[in-house]
Amino acid sequence: MTTDNPFKVLLNCFHVYDYEENEDKYDFHMFWGALKPEKYNKLKPNQRISTFPGCWQLGRKDYLSKNLMKQKRKFPSDYYFVP
Fold first, then answer.
1. pTM, full prediction
2. What average pLDDT does the segment 53-77 reach?
3. Are residues 14 and 44 in the same domain?
4. What is the rounded distance in angstroms from the CA atom of residue 54 to the CA atom of residue 12?
């Protein structure tokens, strides 16, 4: 197990559940990173990934704010507050 990796907690969790690192791009249970868009439709039910296309639109506060304000202008009665 790698100890100088910034994702040590994640690696420890994988170790606890007996996951093994695999270099095969198609045979995996958990993929850490972004896939090419055409690969999302080919995921098997047991496969998990860490990111989805456009997820940064919600994950970054500046883009989240921009998108909420855009929705508020389009649908003022539905967006009467900002969390």
1. 0.50
2. 85
3. yes
4. 28
